[in-house]
Design goal:
Blueprint (H helix, E strand, L loop, with lengths): L2 H27 L1
Protein backbone atom coordinates (compact mmCIF):
# COMPACT_ATOMS: atom_id res chain seq x y z
CA UNK A 1 0.00 0.00 0.00
CA UNK A 2 1.25 3.42 -0.92
CA UNK A 3 0.13 6.05 1.55
CA UNK A 4 0.81 8.84 -0.94
CA UNK A 5 -1.80 7.54 -3.37
CA UNK A 6 -4.30 6.98 -0.56
CA UNK A 7 -3.88 10.55 0.67
CA UNK A 8 -4.08 11.88 -2.90
CA UNK A 9 -7.32 10.01 -3.53
CA UNK A 10 -8.73 11.23 -0.21
CA UNK A 11 -7.95 14.83 -1.19
CA UNK A 12 -9.78 14.40 -4.49
CA UNK A 13 -12.84 12.90 -2.79
CA UNK A 14 -12.88 15.67 -0.16
CA UNK A 15 -12.71 18.32 -2.88
CA UNK A 16 -15.55 16.62 -4.77
CA UNK A 17 -17.65 16.45 -1.62
CA UNK A 18 -17.00 20.11 -0.82
CA UNK A 19 -17.93 21.12 -4.37
CA UNK A 20 -21.15 19.10 -4.21
CA UNK A 21 -22.11 20.53 -0.82
CA UNK A 22 -21.37 24.07 -2.00
CA UNK A 23 -23.44 23.50 -5.15
CA UNK A 24 -26.45 22.14 -3.28
CA UNK A 25 -26.28 24.92 -0.71
CA UNK A 26 -26.26 27.55 -3.49
CA UNK A 27 -29.25 25.88 -5.14
CA UNK A 28 -31.18 25.70 -1.86
CA UNK A 29 -30.47 29.28 -0.83
CA UNK A 30 -30.99 30.77 -4.32
Amino acid sequence: MEWVTLVGQAEVWILLLLATVAGTTKLCTA
